[in-house]
Amino acid sequence: MKTLLAAGNPVSRRDWLRALSFAAAAAACRTPLGAAVPPVAPVLTEAQREGLRGVLREAIARKAIPGGALAVLARGQVVFREALGRAEFESERPFAIESPCFIASLSKPITSTYMMLLDERGVVSLDDPVEKFLPEFKGIVLKSGGAATTTLRVWHLLSHRSGLPGNADMGDFRPGSPANGPDATLASTITGWVKAGLHAEPGARFAYGSAGYIVAGRIAEVVHGKRFERLLQEALLDPLGMAHTTFHPDAATLSAVPARYQPSPKGPQRDVRVMPLPKADGLINPAGGLCSRLDDMAAFLALHLNRGVVGDRRIVKAESLARMYRPHPPRATEAAEGGGVGYGLGWNVMEAGGGRVRHLGASGTLAWLDLKRENAGVLLTQVKWGNAKQLIPRLMKEVQEIFPDAAASKAAR
């Protein structure tokens, strides 16, 4: 038997060939660019799929909604993706998977994710004073009199604790209000709030609304010298392939949006008001102004479920995203509509420890993220939450049965 030398030591040809075969096998198992092998997503049974469909069918049958689209993800991949019903009560136009929808406050976790990118890149720290970027906030006064004694910081803006007006306070400053005028911008809107003064010391009051997110968007504009919608597009929407998510839907998109409805004691009533859309250079609402599609929103949730990774590319650090899932400040218990144990940065925290978060959009949209049970999902309708809200606990119950927690799964076995 021939003997070879390896690192100066004699090695038999048989051992050398065996080592070579092991190395070749190991190389074949490697994924491109060192990417981790993606976890295998579960395949839902037909009974489980019917359970999810049943939630929507029940809401459609009792005329709470004319139709809707639902996507469910598990282990970072879409495992359910369907649309049921009609786009409006008054016709047979179907509600399609491709139907664009105004997602309202589901814009908040998207904007917050973008701000996390700025934080980890050292561009804008969550702990930075707002006046560092917007000097008009220096020495800002309280509506009750006297200067604010607590420094207003960026994280206050995303957690609805800035002292700026909430939805209940905003009056004519609400985005889209005629009082803003056709030429309003993020900058001009903020000027009005600064002149009016803060409603409370930063950090002292939870007041859910758009104001903090509008200020955060303006900070991004000042830092980069570009409009917020372009910044969001370049840093987040394009890398995620969210090609149909925009603050400026065109005429073709608007014609495909399902009819919008408002709740009433008699059931949903069609909202015939003209949707206030921003001019190309006008006021956009980073807190609630996006129009999107089911697949785009699924891509956004997959980013979170995969801890900031898309394919073999890291978009945002896992630890940055984790900061969004914790109440701010840590012992705060207030939450936005939709409940929970507190509000983080763009998410309602549904479980202590940040393992489960979700958000509602007033237009009839819902997104959830369950990191412990490795699932997420998005529901799109265009019926403002009222009687239709009953479908949320039903949907969550169905999802819980498909993806039980570890303790329940072990007990079932």
List its salient traits.
413 residues, alpha+beta, 7-stranded antiparallel beta sheet, two-stranded antiparallel sheet, 12 helices, 15 strands, globular, disordered N terminus, disordered C terminus
How much beta, percentage-wise?
Answer: 5-15%
The total beta strand count reads 15
- SSE order: EEHHEEEHHHHHHEEEHEEHEEEEEHH
The total of helices stands at 12
What number is the mean pLDDT? 88
Label the structural class.
alpha+beta
- The level of helicity is 25-40%
Task: Note the overall shape.
Answer: globular
Outline the biggest β-sheet.
Answer: 7 strands, antiparallel
Low-confidence stretches: 1-37, 407-413
Radius of gyration, CA atoms, in whole angstroms: 25 Å
Task: Give the termini separation.
Answer: 55 Å
Strand order across the biggest sheet?
4-3-15-14-13-12-11
Please provide a written account of the structure:
Helices cover 32% and strands 14% of the residues. The chain has 12 helices and 15 strands. Helix 3 packs across helix 6. The protein is globular and about 60 Å long. The N terminus and C terminus are likely disordered.
Q: Can you lay out the helices and strands and say which pair or pack?
A:
Layout: E1 3-6, E2 9-12, H1 13-29, H2 46-61, E3 67-74, E4 77-85, E5 101-102, H3 107-120, H4 154-158, H5 186-196, H6 211-224, H7 228-237, H8 251-256, E6 261-262, E7 269-270, E8 291-292, H9 294-305, E9 309-310, E10 313-314, H10 318-324, E11 342-343, E12 348-349, E13 356-361, E14 365-370, E15 375-380, H11 391-402, H12 406-412
Antiparallel strand pairs: 1-2, 3-4, 3-15, 5-8, 6-7, 9-10, 11-12, 12-13, 13-14, 14-15
Helix pairs in contact: 2-11, 3-6
